């Protein structure tokens, strides 16, 4: 059985949806969104959060 990162990709997509929902250019910051919305729901470090935001999502088959 091959290892895949399907659950991690799902989590990245959920985090990206939270960011898209709450981000307003020149008003909010990623750190503020991470602290207020992401960290309580998905406990992770800020560096992991930034890594998730910068991850390109593969197209689903």
Total beta strands: 0
- What value does the average pLDDT take? 89
What is the count of DSSP helices, taking H or I runs of 4+ residues?
3
Unreliably modeled segments = none
Whole-angstrom Rg: 13 Å
Give a written overview of the molecule.
The chain has helices at residues 6-22, 30-41, 46-53. It is mainly alpha-helical and 61 residues long. The protein has one domain (6-53).
Summarize the structure.
The protein has three helices and no strands. By secondary structure, it is mainly alpha-helical.
Name some characteristics of this structure.
mainly alpha; 0% strand; 61% helix; 3 helices; globular
Task: Indicate the topology.
Blueprint: H1 6-22, H2 30-41, H3 46-53
Helix pairs in contact: 1-2
